[in-house]
Amino acid sequence: MVQPDLFERPEGPRVFTVSQINEMVRRLLDESYGNVIVEGEISNARRQTSGHWYLSLKDERASLGGVMFRSDAATLRFDIENGLRVRAVGRLTVYAAQGRFQIQIRRLEPVGQGALELAFRQLRDKLQREGLFDASRKRPLPRIPGRVALITSPTGAAVRDMLTTLRGRWPLVRVLIVPVPVQGETAGAEIAHALQRVNREQRADVIVLARGGGSLEDLWAFNEEGVARAIAASRIPVVCGVGHETDTTIADFVADVRAATPTAAAMMVVPQRDDVVEALQGLLRRMARALRRRCDGERQRLDAWRSSYAFRRPRLLLAEAAQALDARREMLVRALAGQVERRATRLRAAQAQLKALSPHGVLARGYTYCEDADSRQLVAR
Hints:
5-stranded mixed beta barrel; elongated
């Protein structure tokens, strides 16, 4: 309501600057209302590089601007999204530089679900779109690991149960306990760092990420994005055994194998000694049967050779072979002699032809012909 004395003063009405008006309204709102709770749907949400969020809260008939500064936004468990219905706790104020009425938000809570449930759903959907849950990227576990790394709390009941199970099933396994907090503000970062360290040092054949049961808040470290990405980046297969059978975390979706409990995880990573012994005994029996069959077969072949004609009459076979060799030798000698004779005949014929065509023979025949011709001429005279 306009105060009468603003216009009925003797010296005339008071004149305010724009800044003064905005400051008056800001103080009036601050003194009159303090903290308020506003329910509405988020729209026009945008995050500045400074980390501050600017948004609007709207209902069917109106819209209210809002700002959430970086220090308050850092405490949110979920991501601010357009269309999300929330309850905003904060103070009504005016941004004096522009005269903009807004609410300075200190805390946001989703309507109809808790902040952790919403954060879980948002991260689950995000990582699923990226393919981190795909079965194609899951790696098989080693059948008989030499060393198992347990990333867990060193003092909880879960680690004792896992050690008992591992040693009872496969006493030869070596266990590396990587102690981490499994609850609290720093737990997620330390779990992710432990995963990276085990991979960097290559000190295990398989990793078990485990803790006992608890509420969603207690298990939240295993729902953090940093832990999920560390599991996805691991070159060593990861088994996740977090909570009880009904508990589900983001780490369960990303891990290569999910176990219902820490004890179940320990049972998955090592074989049962008795089963291995039984399998080895079965292999030994199969090998013995195969060797017996092979020996029986070779014995039968040897008996067949021993009873064959060659083994019973070796001298006779050698005599027959020697006789055949002599016959072939005689045939070869005769064939060679005939070949030599034929070649000698051809050679003599060639020599006769060559002699008849030699220059001396031709000249001798010429002299004889000339002498005969001279004799015939003398007789004719």
